[in-house]
């Protein structure tokens, strides 16, 4: 199937209110253009240097919204703030405070999600629930980060019920934080190629899909 056919199939299964973010890491500019020509405007990358090269080649595509979804190293943070519209992977208070200081210097107000880890996973970054509640007062005091939601990546090997339960808990956490703090967490960035329908069922507002759009990565 072509990229256009893959997109068509996905869009037929999700509500129009859900934002389809095409994960274009390790994919060519040609593939991005094909998805763009079929109406996709949200593209996600996880490696800064790779993303910058693609952005350079796609300068005329002014209405692309670039999302950063990878782990953020402090030496790359300034470039990420300058070159990405949305940052999904703010995974610690230390990083959030650092980004806020950099954003203040550049008068940038980036849209961000807080990356949460609801189940133990040595391979993933993010706040555990208790830790997030402890850090919340300091997160509320940040002036330049537009903290708009939560992002989660599930551990491998979960059953369908475990996936549904974890996505539901992520939404519940966002709702509770919105009720009990000054943060308005309306975005839920959750769901990838293998579990996006389950995420949508439990309230995802943004789904991050790569393989199911572009095919397997090399």
Question: What does the model show?
Answer:
The chain has a single domain (3-214), classed as TIM Barrel (Alpha-Beta Barrel). It is 42% helix and 17% strand. The chain has nine helices and eight strands. It has an eight-stranded parallel β-sheet. It is globular. The mean pLDDT is 96.
Strand content: 15-25%
Low-pLDDT segments, ≥5 res: none
CATH C-level class is Alpha Beta
Shape: globular
The major beta sheet can be summarized as: 8 strands, parallel
- Quickly count the helices: 9
Which percent range fits the helix content? Answer: 40-55%
Total number of domains: 1
> What do the pLDDT scores average to?
96
Radius of gyration: 17 Å
Number of strand segments: 8
Order of helices and strands: HEHEHEHEHEHEHEHEH
Strand sequence of the main sheet, in spatial order? 7-6-5-4-3-2-1-8
Say what the CATH topology is.
TIM Barrel
Task: Provide key terms for this protein.
single chain; 218 residues; alpha/beta; TIM Barrel; eight-stranded parallel β-sheet; 8 strands; 42% helix
Give a quick rundown of the structure.
With 218 residues, the chain is of the alpha/beta class.
Please render the helix and strand layout as text:
Layout: H1 3-11, E1 19-23, H2 29-37, E2 42-45, H3 48-57, E3 65-68, H4 77-83, E4 86-90, H5 93-106, E5 111-116, H6 129-140, E6 146-152, H7 160-180, E7 187-189, H8 196-201, E8 206-209, H9 211-214
């Amino acid at each position: 199937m072509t990229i256009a056919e893959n997109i068509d199939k996905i869009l037929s299964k999700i509500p129009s209110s859900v934002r389809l973010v095409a994960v274009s890491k390790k994919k060519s500019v040609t593939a991005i253009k094909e998805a763009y020509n079929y109406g996709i405007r949200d593209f996600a990358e996880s490696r800064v240097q790779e993303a910058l090269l693609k952005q350079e080649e796609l300068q005329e595509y002014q209405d692309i919204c670039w999302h950063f979804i990878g782990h953020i190293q402090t030496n790359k943070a300034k470039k990420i703030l300058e070159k990405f519209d949305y940052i999904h992977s703010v995974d610690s208070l230390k990083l959030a405070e650092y980004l806020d200081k950099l954003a203040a210097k550049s008068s940038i107000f980036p849209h961000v999600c807080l990356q949460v880890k609801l189940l133990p996973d040595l391979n993933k970054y993010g706040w555990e629930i208790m830790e997030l509640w402890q850090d919340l007062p300091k997160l509320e005091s940040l002036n330049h980060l537009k903290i708009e939601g939560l992002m989660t990546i599930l551990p491998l090997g979960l059953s369908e019920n475990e996936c549904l339960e974890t996505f539901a808990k992520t939404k519940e956490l966002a709702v509770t934080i919105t009720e009990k703090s000054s943060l308005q967490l309306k975005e839920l960035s959750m769901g990838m190629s293998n579990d996006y329908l389950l995420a949508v069922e439990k309230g995802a507002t943004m789904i991050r899909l790569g393989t199911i759009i572009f095919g397997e990565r090399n």
